[in-house]
Design goal:
The chain has 2 helices and 3 strands. By secondary structure, it is of the alpha+beta class. The protein has a 3-stranded antiparallel β-sheet with strand order 1-3-2, with helices on one face. The protein starts with a strand and ends with a helix. The relative contact order is 0.32.
Length: 74
């Protein structure tokens, strides 16, 4: 079994509310799930307006599938 994980940290300097942050978060999570077929969730800084932390993971029996996670890290 191969497990790939990644944490993505985004700074949102133009954001001024949690509502705006949630809008960006929902959009990004849906796009990542749809494009890469991975599990995605907001994992930290839930109450900070201008910081978004997204966790991404993929479990597979083939290491080639983990390439999706490597693409996100670059």
């Amino acid at each position: 079994m191969v497990v790939g994980t990644c944490e993505l940290i985004f700074q949102l300097p133009e954001n001024h509310s949690l509502k705006g942050k949630r809008q960006v978060s929902r959009s990004l999570v849906q796009q990542l799930r749809g494009r890469f077929n991975v599990s995605v969730a907001e994992v930290a800084d839930l109450d900070r307006w201008q910081t978004l932390a997204i966790g991404v993971t993929c479990v597979s029996n083939d290491s080639r599938h983990q390439h999706h996670i490597e693409i996100l890290r670059t």
